[in-house]
Amino acid sequence: MTDPVYRRVVIKLSGEYLAGQQGFGIDQATMDRVADDLIAARQLGTEVAVVIGGGNIFRGVEVSSRGVSRPTGDTMGMLATMMNCLALEATIERKGTPARALSAFVMPEISELFTRTAAHKYLAEGRILLLGGGTGNPFFTTDTTAVLRAAEIGAQAVLKATNVDGVYSADPKKDPSATRFDRLTHSQAIEGGYKVMDATAFALARETSLPIIVFSIAEPGSIGAILRGAGHGTIVAG
């Protein structure tokens, strides 16, 4: 077996992806497939932490545009990420692999609070971590959360699992002439305004010298392929 390129990573998963073809909520077949990929990644020897969005359940930005305050809307969105974390934790454990959901919010009846000490403890035990609640603050995306948590726990990379196989000059679904980048610097990603990840996340990754690998989650085994250095994606680093 090839040794993984990274020994500890944070994987950013889209909440919308977990809805599958139904467009809302959680599609269990999709959740099972994602869980299988995460378990396979852990079996390579990589310590795995996961940050999940909440867009399949609730998008704070959208409700804010209809009159709810942005802080309230964002808090509701962060609670949606906890629902996804709990569902994925249950799915992973049903498959026989230990997992642990940690929350940015104090909610002892539901989940342990995220601390670096707790994260390091559970990673050392071989558990897959599910990090919910965003940063615990409004106005920050789960993209930024993934980079922040990666820096906090000493991860070597952030893997951005999305619906396209890298960073493009434009939306490849709308612009057939869009070109795909194999590699970008953090500064180039920020200056180019590429929408695959928000500028705050790229800026924090630049400050903390964390590489971001953008790849498609659509193909089974894609996480493991990236970890083995054989995957197809865009590396944002340097």
UniProtKB/TrEMBL annotation:
Control of this protein's activity is summarized as: Allosterically activated by GTP. Inhibited by UTP.
Pfam families linked: AA_kinase (PF00696)
Name the UniProt key words of this record, in alphabetical order. Answer: Allosteric enzyme, ATP-binding, Cytoplasm, Kinase, Nucleotide-binding, Pyrimidine biosynthesis, Transferase
**What does the entry list as the binding residues for UMP?**
G54, D74, T135, G136, N137, P138, F139, F140, T141, T142
Q: Which gene encodes it?
A: pyrH
Reported EC number(s) for this entry are 2.7.4.22
Chief site of localization: cytoplasm
Q: What is this protein called?
A: Uridylate kinase
Q: Which region ranges are annotated with the description Involved in allosteric activation by GTP?
A: 20-25
Q: Name one GO biological process term.
A: 'de novo' CTP biosynthetic process
Protein family membership: Belongs to the UMP kinase family.
| Organism name | Bradyrhizobium rifense
Read off the PANTHER family from this record.
URIDYLATE KINASE, URIDYLATE KINASE PUMPKIN, CHLOROPLASTIC
**Binding positions for ATP?**
K12, L13, S14, G15, G55, R59, T162, N163, Y168, D171
Which ranges carry the Aspartate/glutamate/uridylate kinase domain?
8-216
Cellular component, GO annotation: cytosol
**What is the purpose of this protein?**
Catalyzes the reversible phosphorylation of UMP to UDP.
| Reactions accelerated catalytically | UMP + ATP = UDP + ADP
Question: Localized where?
Answer: Cytoplasm
Pathway it belongs to? Pyrimidine metabolism; CTP biosynthesis via de novo pathway; UDP from UMP (UMPK route): step 1/1
Please give the subunit comment from the record.
Homohexamer.
Enzyme class, broadest EC rank: transferase
Q: Name one GO molecular function term.
A: ATP binding
